[in-house]
Every structure is written in C-alpha cells, then in structure tokens.
Amino acid sequence: MQYKLLVGLVCAVLVSGCGGGGDSSSAVTSASAEGLWIGTMDDPVFLDDKAITALVLDDGSYWVWHANFYDEGLIRGTGTSQSGSFTSSSGRSFSTKWGGGSTVYTLSASHIEKESLSGTFRDVLSGTQRMFTASYDPAYELTPSLGAIAGTYSGTAAISIGEYYAATDYLYRWEPQTFTISDSGAISGTTGGCVFSGSVTPRASGNAYNVAVSKYGIDCDHTALTDTLNGVAYFDAATSTLRLAAVYLPRIVAFVCVGTKHQVAQTSEQGAPAEGSP
What we know:
Elements: H1 2-14, E1 35-41, E2 50-56, E3 61-67, E4 72-78, E5 80-82, E6 85-95, E7 102-112, E8 116-123, E9 129-136, H2 146-149, E10 151-163, E11 168-181, E12 186-191, E13 194-202, E14 209-214, E15 229-236, E16 241-248, E17 253-261
Antiparallel strand pairs: 1-2, 1-9, 2-3, 3-4, 4-6, 5-6, 6-7, 7-8, 8-9, 10-11, 10-17, 11-12, 12-13, 13-14, 14-15, 15-16, 16-17
C-alpha cells in the first residue's frame, strides 16, 4: 500500500511521465526572453499593422525596429524576465517619420522559449496602446562575424531628437544613405550631406553586434549630433540587410538606419569577370 501511494505521489508531480492528466506537447516557458523576434505590431493611429524586427539581448535590453507605409521608428528599453513574462517601465519610442521626437513607453509581454513573444507597448503620456506578436527566429543562435557584415550598404537613415510632447528641439527625417563596414569593424558613411563614423563589434551572446556612432546627422550643426551614440546592429544574411540603431539618452537622441549590402561580382580563377558578368 505504501509503495502504491508513493508511486501515485510521483505521478501527481510528474503528470505526463505516468500517462494521462498531462499534455506532453505543452510548451515550457523560459526564464529569459532573449532572442531575435519577427512579427507585427498594430498601429491604432493609422489602423495598419507594422512589421517588427526585435532583439532582446542577454542583458535585458530590447531594440525594436518597426515600419509600415505610414510610420517608422525604433523602440528601445530594458526589461525584466520572470516566469514567462517580460516587462519594462522605462522604454523609449523614437518616431522617425510622422511627428518625430520621443515618448516614454511601458512594455508588458509574455514569452515561450524559442517560440513566441507577444504583449503590449503603452505610451505613458497619451495612453495609446500597441499590441504585438512575434515568433522566434533561430538565426539568433548563429555566430556573429565581422567578415559576414563587411562591405558597402545602401538604404535609408534617420535621426530623432528631443521630446515630442514637450515640443522641445525635436528633429526627424529619413534620408538616403550609404555606408561601409571594414573587415576590422570600422563604420564610415554619409547621410543627408553629413559624414558619420563609428565601430561595430560582435557580441559575446547572440547573433548581434555592439555599435558606436558619431559625427553624423541631417543637420551637422546641431549640438546633439556631436555626441557618441551606442547601440546594436543585426545582419539578416538571407536578405543581406543590416539594421542599426544607436541612442544617446541624456539628450534623447536616436539614430536608425537600414541598409542592403551590395553584392560583389564573382570573378574567375584568373581574376577576369565570371562568364555572364557585365
């Protein structure tokens, strides 16, 4: 009798291990929301979903690039993971298209290990909420490499400066831009007639890069553009797209750019253009 009672107690704890009473397909929540997440976020203003690419790093910081036809920008903050939830009270949303400037955001989300992340961003001042849902991308588990991202890129860049609701010194605009990343990780480029430079280094955890950028901007005379901004970059090898974001929070400044890497023409073993090359 005592043996049967012990077995019953073990089954009650393990549930699925003894058959019946459990769902063996249930996902297990993770202690961390770290990862690369691809999904959509609703837009209550323009009523059109935005595509999002989000990085949640091992230190709890998160970086969300979002875009649709009407609006583009960045959400950046630091959150805490606990029992399948991921929350943040000090996020910043930087708009780089409509309205510009920056607002304070909170985040409340739930996640399942290497599967899903969903929740709500809330604008603290206006109360506007933006719900999102995203799926885990295993590309986050690849090893970052300067050799993989070295090259020349073309795309768009934007600067977002100041407090939007306070209407203090805010500036925003997308501009065509080109930039180059050297084999050593040095960044150099132009946007809106200004030159920017910096460095990129692989992170120790996850397929992402640390970034430092300075001497850039739409208006080179603007004092906020003389600061060094720090952030992250992610390279999507499948589309040859690099997403970069860097911030300087004491002055509420963000720099965001998205570029596509130029394809290098292949050559033959003799060094001449490969057959069929222009």
